[in-house]
Amino acid sequence: MSKVENYFNSVKSELSKVIFPIKEQIRTAYISVFIVVTVIALYLALIDGIMSISLSSIIN
């Protein structure tokens, strides 16, 4: 039983060192990720549209 107690005490000790983010930090990170993903998606859509138009004009 000593090993199990030691394990749980170690887990409890390590968990007390963890700093969990507050709601404002989570919200800021979420908004940042959303903006970056949206910008990249729009950029890729623009490049795809340009390439599609240019290739269709070359083929025709």
Count of DSSP H/I helices: 2
Low-confidence segments: none
The largest pleated sheet is described as:
none
Task: Report the sheet-strand fraction.
Answer: under 5%
What's the shape?
A: elongated
- Structural Rg: 25 Å
What class, by secondary structure content?
A: mainly alpha
| CA distance, first residue to last residue | 79 Å
Overall helicity: over 70%
Order of helices and strands: HH
Count all strands and give the number: 0
Mean model confidence by pLDDT: 95
Please give a structural write-up:
The protein is an all-alpha fold. It contains 2 helices and no strands. The longest helix has 37 residues, at 23-59.
Itemize the secondary structure elements and their pairings.
Blueprint: H1 2-17, H2 23-59
Q: What labels would you give this structure?
A:
mainly alpha
Short description:
The chain is mainly alpha-helical.
